[in-house]
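User: Last request for today: this protein with copper (II) ion, please.
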Amino acid sequence: MSMTRSTLALAGICGVVGLGIGVAAQTPPATSAPATKMAAPAGAPTGKVASAKMMPTQGSNTRGELTFTQDAKGIHVTGSFTGLAFGEHGFHIHEKGDCSAPDGASAGGHFNPTSSPHGARDAAERHVGDLGNLKADPYGMARLDITDEKISLDGPNSIIGKAVIIHEKADDFQTQPTGNAGARIACGVVEVKGASTPSSK
Ligand code: CU
Ligand code: ZN
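Assistant: Here's the final one, the structure of the complex with copper (II) ion:
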């Protein structure tokens, strides 16, 4: 038994060293952006990946990163956020990819290509941009891991070039057309990964 334990301990040390080398050897992936835009049917798998960097609006401290990946069931959305008040915060795709206004108003209303009423993410009818609420913990942090069937990275429901907005308050899923979620506390534009101009990290 003592022999087994010491072997395991040694393996643990080797594992840590190996991990360090793996991180150091990481290189950025090569990208080859297609020269032409092709209209793919809605829901067709494209392998596209998009991202959004959430920056605080004036007077806010909320930040975050989002990744959108096409998979067989829809668009897999993952993200992490900091600087939130404890509790729920409305989370939407808005129709204009413009975060220039200090209060985020330049992003326009909820992305609604189907002219539907505002609603919860699992409602039969909703704006394409209605992605529910983020839930922040007592430390002001939130994580998101959902797969949505209405948003897309292609076609009429494509969110590429639109803005993601985090709100001050919870979306009530009732009030039209906003969910009464209050001020816009963070804004970020959805961009195809690797296609945008490299920015400082
Ligand atoms: Cu919103
Ligand atoms: Zn909405």
